[in-house]
Amino acid sequence: MAITSMGNCARFAAKPLTHGGTPAPVWLAGLDQKSLPQLDLTQCPGLVVAAAHPDDETLGLGAMIAQLVAAGVDVRVVSASDGGAADPNATRWERTRLEATRRHELRRAADVLKVPLPVSLGLPDGELADHEDRLADLLAETLASAGPGAWCAANWRGDGHPDHEAVGRAAATACARTGATLLEYPIWMWHWGRPFDTAVPWENASAVAVSGWAVARKRLAAQCFRSQFEPGAAQSAPVLPAFVLPRLLAVGELVFR
Predict the structure, then answer these.
(1) Is residue 159 a contact partner of residue 111, using CB atoms and an 8 Å limit?
(2) pLDDT tens profile 128-183
(3) Which of 56, 151, 157, 254 can bridge 168 by disulfide, Cβ–Cβ 3.0-4.6 Å?
(4) In whole angstroms, what separates CA 257 from the centre of its chain?
(5) d(CA 153, CA 228)
(6) Angle of helix 92-113 relative to helix 56-70, nearest 10 degrees?
(7) Bridge partners of 51?
(8) How many other C-beta atoms lie within 10 A of the C-beta of residue 122?
(9) What percent of the chain shows pLDDT beyond 90?
(10) Closest listed residue to residue 77, CA positions, set 46, 100, 101
(11) DSSP single-letter state for residue 21
(12) From the CB of residue 2, how many other CB atoms can be counted at a distance below 10 Å?
């Protein structure tokens, strides 16, 4: 099912990460009132996870990835950028070093999740919208090699981060070309959104039911991204504040179909 979105970058910009965003208990109370269908993971013949930055795949769907791999499903991870622009205060040399660090962190997280070596496309962090056509071509090639009926999970087109939304649009194009099943996972929606938010296509949402051990593995994989949770250049604030990971672990995983 196609999911259209005008994007929510203005919503995210209006609620920066320096603020706490919507607390996990508010989300949990709202989700208790809204019974979402569960995604049937037994129907997945193979999965390609498209991520704008190293860590998106883990923060968005780390537990689902771990569970599918344990069930013998072929899971591949494609990272559009190397995340070098995560710290705006970094010098050019520091950015190059950060890119290498984040590629290393992604490999470590993939090892925790038991997925093969991720593919890093090396497109410019923060400028993915300018390379959307190229990204769609590359994702289509990957999906074509993944076998018939493959699923493609990508950042949600309405997530509020320009790079996330660009990857979602590119993945939608690639799925339309190849016949792959498109799933879109939110990350920053949990920050700027609210339960029953009209900017969120709840009618297309499915909850991802995973085991406790898969959530624990997601936590371990997320902790591999130390560059995002620790102070940056010149002791600047961490890219991901301390409240981000606990909130994502609390609300669970969700996809739009």
Answers:
(1) no
(2) 999 999 999 999 999 999 989 999 999 999 999 999 999 999 999 999 999 999 99
(3) 157
(4) 15
(5) 22
(6) 20
(7) 79
(8) 13
(9) 86
(10) 46
(11) -
(12) 9
Contact 192, 160 (CB under 8 A): yes
Find, among 20, 67, 76, 87, the residue nearest to 46 by Cα: 76
Question: How far is residue 174's CA from residue 157's CA, in Å, rounded to a whole number?
Answer: 14
Measured CA to CA, the distance from residue 189 to residue 202 in angstroms comes to: 12
In the numeric block, the tokens 């190229």 are attached to: 134
Q: When comparing pLDDT for 237 and 13, which is higher? A: 13
Over residues 22-55, the pLDDT tens digits come to 999 999 999 999 889 999 999 999 999 999 999 9
CA distances from 29 to 34, 162, 194, 230, 256 (A): 9, 29, 11, 30, 20
| pLDDT of 6 | 64
Cα distances (angstroms) measured from residue 174 to each of 51, 177, 200: 14, 5, 23
Q: Tell me whether residue 15 is exposed, middle or buried, using C-beta atoms within 10 angstroms of its C-beta: 0 to 12, 13 to 18, 19 or more.
A: middle
- When pLDDT is averaged across residues 242-246 and rounded to a whole number, the result is 96
CB 103 within 8 A of CB 60: no
- CA-based nearest residue to 30, from 255, 194, 241, 222: 194
Give the C-alpha separation, 157 to 1, whole Å: 14
